[in-house]
Design goal:
330 residues; alpha+beta; 60s Ribosomal Protein L30, Chain: A; Phosphoribosyl-aminoimidazole Synthetase, Chain A, domain 2; six-stranded mixed β-sheet; 9 helices; 15 strands
């Protein structure tokens, strides 16, 4: 299992039973089994949904690890703290919900100074205000490299939206513009921040978008949703697999920011491939019926019955890429 998603699938099968065995109780009495609180959505979506007896609660966790998810020389501690919370909150927005609280575990290396620490916390505090996720606790530990583990709780605007509601005939939509964050990271890694318009793309990678304002509106018409973290193509494949459908994406309809194509050319990057597979966007990808009016997003294709995601160029020819997106173990 050298693939991230194979590991997730194995974990999902392992924990699908829904009850946990209890051994001897405090009094020595045999307790049998005790059911979980009602799990509405378990492993395999952007977040879990658990009913604790009052209303459904959204729960998600995300980790940012130094030299895996970020390099300290490419981002400030304040920006890192902000980015860690917003990227975790993105999974809550993808469930048509809004964050309410968060707990954060920090692993700090020897070289992490008190100034670094305070700046990191200031970034976390800023993101808490932007997302609505009040910081209510966490943990501090020491380790060889910096890592930030963020658990976010949220409440649905109406009912939680999952990846599994897309139907043939639905349109595929994305918020914002794709590829900008991935391009910003490529600019930083290439040391090309002096290129024209480069700083706006770098800023887009360092500060992911906040989607709280749009979530309530999306609950009125979206049929399925996922956030774009590992690449639009790969995350769309997850949504289609959960819904038992396929999709046809028109590359010419993919929205990109002004100056994006020129910078991709300067760095010898394929603009369509980067926009669809680069990841780091943290935009929302969702499906909705074709007759829905006034959607504040861009239609990039449609859902089809054949269980395959196909990309077509401006002449209708199939486009293929070596990888659909980012994978941690490959």
């Amino acid at each position: 299992m050298h693939d991230e998603f194979a590991k997730i699938d194995w974990i999902k099968r392992r924990f699908e039973k829904g009850t946990v065995p209890f051994s001897e109780g405090l009094t020595g009495e045999k307790k049998g089994t005790v059911p979980f609180s009602e799990v509405i959505v378990g492993i395999g979506d952007d977040a879990a949904v658990v009913d604790f007896g009052d209303r459904p609660t959204i729960v998600t966790v995300d980790v940012q690890v130094e030299d895996v998810h970020f390099r300290r020389d490419l981002i400030s501690c304040r920006e890192l703290g902000l980015r860690a919370v917003i990227t975790a909150a993105s999974d809550v927005w993808a469930m048509a919900s809004n964050p309410t609280a968060a707990v954060i575990a920090l692993t700090l290396p020897d070289a992490f100074t008190d100034v670094d620490f305070r700046e990191l916390i200031e970034g976390i505090a800023e993101a808490s205000e932007l997302t609505g996720a009040r910081i209510i606790g966490g943990n501090l530990s020491h380790g060889r490299s910096l890592s930030i583990t963020t658990t976010v709780f949220g409440l649905p605007e109406a009912k939680p939206l999952t990846r599994s509601g897309a139907r043939p005939g639905d349109q595929v939509y994305v918020t914002g513009e794709l590829g900008a964050a991935a391009l910003g990271l490529e600019i930083l890694k290439a040391g090309a921040s002096d290129l024209e318009n480069a700083e706006s793309f770098v800023a887009r990678w360092r500060r992911p978008p906040v989607h709280g304002a749009i979530v309530q509106e999306l609950t009125r018409y979206a049929t399925a949703m996922i956030d774009i973290s590992d690449g639009c193509l790969q995350d769309l494949q997850h949504l289609c697999a959960a819904s038992g459908v396929g999709a046809m994406i028109h590359a010419s309809d993919v929205p990109t920011a002004p100056g994006y194509g020129e910078l991709c050319t300067a760095l010898d990057l394929d603009p369509i491939e980067l926009a669809l597979t680069g990841g780091e966007d943290y935009e929302l990808l969702f499906t909705a019926p074709p007759d829905t009016a006034g959607i504040p997003a861009t239609s990039i294709g449609e859902i089809v019955g054949v269980r395959e995601v196909r990309i077509l160029d401006h002449e209708g020819r199939p486009v293929e890429f070596d990888r659909p997106g980012y994978r941690h173990f490959s």
